[in-house]
Structures are given as structure tokens and as C-alpha cells.
Design goal:
- The chain is an alpha+beta fold.
- Helix content is 31%, strand content 37%.
- Strands 1-2-3-4-5-6-8-7 form an eight-stranded mixed beta sheet.
- Strand 5, helix 4 (104-120) and strand 6 (124-130) form a beta-alpha-beta unit.
Length: 174
């Protein structure tokens, strides 16, 4: 499955993408910004981990490509904890370091949100951001996200406790 966006292209992740997803999953930036996990793991363990994630709560996952280079993905975006009764889902976006700060993450996120709102008839989409991730937090607020929750001292990272913000984008924001 493919989703065509402005400057980006989303392709549904599959077994052939296991190695790149594993590489990102072990990246210190991914562990810092996008995961509750802390340790790196071997590829065979990641295969079991991601399989368990899809059985438990992972909904859909896509690779992000620049339209100018459809062979090398620049990141991943995935939804989890889908609740069709109340009409919400959570989303996490990861862009590799070389492509960070160029707008690809924002475009991929908006494209994925539009897809989720249209296909699953959602009311809102949640994004959770750690307090130390100023860049993502500010970009989401600028894009119309609303802070719906703040979980004090939620994450222990680098010897310090940090808050977790839960932001929401509503269907009407797009």
C-alpha cells in the first residue's frame, strides 16, 4: 500500500523492511524520542519484538521516502492503540538525522493523519512528546495540536525525570 503526499511518499512496511526498522529501533535518537525501550537488541530479537507489537497494539506502519529518492527511506511512521469505538489512535514519527529539520516529518505526519482520518473515521489523533523534545513539541503546537495532558516526571532519562505531553489533532484541524 502506498500513500502519496507532498514531497514524500509513504509505503506500508513489510517483512522486507525488517532490517532498516531494526537499524532505526536501535538508533539512540529513536530510543530517546520515539520509544519507551532503552536497550538495543539483535535483529532476531527485533523480529519477535515487532511481531509482538503488532499483536498487542501496533496498528499500521509505513516507511517514509522523499519523492526525489524512492529507494532509500528516510524514516518511519506508525499508529498504535487504535480505538474505533471512541475514534482515536496514537501516532509516532521518526525521521533519520540527515533529513531532520527539513519538513519531511511534518509533511509525512500530516499525510498519515489525513489517511487515518479518512479511512478509519477517527475523531482525533494523539501524539506523545517528551519534555526534552522541544523541536517536535513546538512543530506540533505550530501545526494546531492541542495539549490534552501533561504527565509529570513520567520518563527517567539521563539521570533526570521529564514530563510527557499528550497532544491531539482533531479531524477539523486538517
Amino acid at each position: 500500500m502506498f500513500i502519496n503526499g507532498f514531497r514524500i511518499f509513504l509505503q506500508k512496511a513489510g517483512p522486507k523492511d525488517l532490517e532498516i526498522l531494526w537499524h532505526w529501533r536501535n538508533n539512540p535518537r529513536f530510543l530517546r524520542f520515539c520509544s519507551v525501550r532503552r536497550d538495543t537488541i539483535e535483529l532476531e530479537d527485533f523480529d519477535k519484538e515487532i511481531g509482538g507489537d503488532f499483536l498487542r497494539d501496533r496498528h499500521e506502519q509505513f516507511l517514509i521516502y522523499k519523492k526525489s529518492n524512492l529507494t532509500d527511506p528516510i524514516g518511519t511512521i506508525y499508529s498504535y492503540n487504535l480505538n474505533l469505538v471512541d475514534g482515536y489512535v496514537f501516532v509516532t514519527t521518526y525521521i533519520d538525522e540527515q533529513n531532520e529539520g527539513k519538513g519531511y516529518g511534518a509533511i509525512a505526519t500530516a499525510t498519515f493523519f489525513q489517511y487515518l482520518f479518512e479511512i478509519f473515521d477517527l475523531f482525533k489523533i494523539y501524539i506523545e512528546v517528551y519534555e526534552y523534545n522541544d523541536q517536535s513539541f513546538n512543530q506540533l503546537i505550530k501545526g494546531g495540536a492541542v495539549v490534552e495532558g501533561r504527565f509529570s516526571n513520567h520518563r527517567l532519562f539521563n539521570g533526570r525525570r521529564w514530563d510527557l505531553f499528550r497532544l491531539a489533532i482533531y479531524r477539523e484541524h486538517l
